[in-house]
Amino acid sequence: MQTATTPAAVDWDHPADPPPGSRLDHVRAYVATAGADGHLWHGVPTLLLTTFDRVAGRTVRTPLIYTSDEDRHIVLAAADGAAHHPGWYRNLCSHPEVRLQVGALTAQARARTATPEERETYWAAMTALWPAYDDYQAAAAPREIPLVIIER
Known about the structure:
Elements (H helix, E strand, L loop, with lengths): L21 H11 L7 E2 L2 E9 L6 E7 L1 E3 L2 E5 L10 H8 L2 E6 L2 E9 L2 H14 L2 H9 L6 E5 L1
Antiparallel strand pairs: 1-2, 2-3, 2-6, 4-5, 5-8, 6-7, 7-8
C-alpha cells in the first residue's frame, strides 16, 4: 500500500455520495439522522467511510458493513465479489487519511490494509456478520478481498 499524504485542503464536509439507488438512499438517511436510521442495515452495523478520490481530487462517501475491536473499525473491500478492488479501497491505498462516521460520531482516521495475521483474526467476525462475504471471496478469486483496519 502506498503512503502518500492526502492534500491539506481536502473538503471532508462535502463528499460525493453514491449514484442514485439503494446505497445513496442509505447514505442520505444515515447522514440526516446521525445514524439513527442507517447505522443498522439489514440487521448489521454500518459506517460511512469518506476517502479522498485519487482520480477526481475530491472526497467520496461509501456505506460499509463493519465490526470493531476496541478503537479499531474493520471493513472488507469486497465489491460484491468483483474481480477488482473497489474504488474506495484504491483511494485509501493512495491516501490513507479518511473520515469515519459511526452513528452520530464523526472523526478523522487512518486506514490500512490488515496484515495477514489480522486478516485471519477478523475474517471470521466479518463473515459472522455477513455470511455472503465467503461467497464474494470465492467469486473474486484469485483476488484476495482486503480486510481494512481503520484507526482514529
